[in-house]
Amino acid sequence: MEIRVLRYFLEAAREENISKAAQKLNVTQPTMSKQLKDLEYELGQKLFTRTNYRIKLTAEGHLLKKRAEDIVNLTDRTLAEFKSAQETYEGDIDIGCPETPSIKYLARAVKSIQKEHPRIRCNLHSGNLADVTERLDKGLLDFAFVMDYVDLAKYAYLDIPAQDIWGVIMRKDDPLSRQKSLSVKELYHLPLICSRQGINIDFPKWFGSDLDSLNIVATFNLSYNAFIMVREGIGYAVSYDRLADTYENSDLKFIPIENIPPSNMKLVWRKTQVFSPIAALLLEELKKEQPS
After folding, report:
1. CB neighbours of 101 closer than 8 A, spacing ≥ 6?
2. 10 Å Cβ neighbour count for 4?
3. Contact 240/75 with Cβ under 8 angstroms?
4. With CB atoms 3.0 to 4.6 Å apart as the test, which of 55, 59, 87, 155 could cross-link to 48 if both were Cys?
5. What residues does 121 pair with on adjacent strands?
6. What tens digit of pLDDT does each residue of 169-201 get?
7. How far apart are CA 184 and CA 71, in angstroms?
8. pLDDT tens for residues 142-168?
9. Which ranges in the chain are annotated with CATH 3.40.190.10?
10. Which residues touch 210 (CB under 8 Å, ≥6 apart)?
């Protein structure tokens, strides 16, 4: 299975048309068709269903697409790392991160190194813990920002001097917005909008065996849409502070949850990671944020 053929396959899957894919990759349509048929023969699986006008992936084709994307991305990253090792400080740094105000430390570090090395580019891959650690484990990321409940036995890490406070985002015209805080018990009586990661990782610590008693009316992966649902009166979003606009003129308000410890942020990387020069440079810059 050749990388070149996987690129053909991915382009054909994106275009849903072999002729268009061949044109974009500057190869002939018969050449691409033969390569894709040879790939199907090699795998012993039909990857496409074909009509006169388009092609569609089979179930096996969707599986290969996911694998091929990882293989091609990892190949491209490896080539870029070797290229950057031979040249000046330039190239891409790929970082996985959740939604958190603590990313300001990354932003400061990137800004600092780009002043001297403007050809460095930082690529952020936003997602929850499962999303970013999966990409990190596959070698598709240089680093990942994670909360402190990640399994640190798997990774090397750097503590980031920031904490995120848990609370509830609600409409400012809600009677509860006049409270200084909410207890965990009060959450049982509210229609909650919760992150799927929170339900699986944080909530069992807060609610224990009573987790099923919660009235969870919606779930989310990233929070922007959750705050729209709050504005429309669907429920109350359980979230970190400073993710939503809750300033004076906002229609939303953040109320902290009592007796829930804040989450600490860490930068993690694979213990076997071999850093490119620019990734090492960023790590050194982030270390400057460590308390003395």
Report:
1. 162, 164, 240, 241, 242, 243
2. 12
3. no
4. 55
5. 92
6. 999 999 999 999 999 999 999 999 999 888 988
7. 45
8. 999 988 777 788 899 999 988 899 999
9. 88-163+264-287, 166-261
10. 188
